[in-house]
Amino acid sequence: MAEIAVVAISVAKPGHEEQLREALEGIVGPTRKEQGALQYDLHRDVQEPRRFVFVERWESQEALAAHAGSAHIAAYKKTVADWVEHAEIRVVSKIA
């Protein structure tokens, strides 16, 4: 298994910053308990408070795929669909 990292960015629509923050905080606990989750930390951009950034590490692509298909992530996506202006997920592997 090759460890992978993820940077996931979500930008709230204006006026939905706190709703999105609460929803994002709500998935931290369940995700940290998932098999294969090595790191799952939520950050908020200090210059752009509508931007939230997850820094993640997973044991494998399979662990990340299981996370993506989990019930709490499905519920989160449904909940925040109208609050997110932009989302981006980058999966990377460490080279140095």
From TrEMBL:
Against InterPro entries, the record matches this protein to: ABM_dom, AI-2_Isomerase_LsrG, Dimeric_a/b-barrel
Alphabetically sorted, this entry's keywords are: Monooxygenase, Oxidoreductase
EC numbers, comma separated: 1.-.-.-
Show the GO MF annotations: monooxygenase activity
Pfam hit, one: ABM
Residue span(s) of domain ABM: 4-93
Protein name as catalogued: Monooxygenase
The record lists the organism as Paraburkholderia domus
Q: What is the lineage of its organism?
A: Bacteria, Pseudomonadati, Pseudomonadota, Betaproteobacteria, Burkholderiales
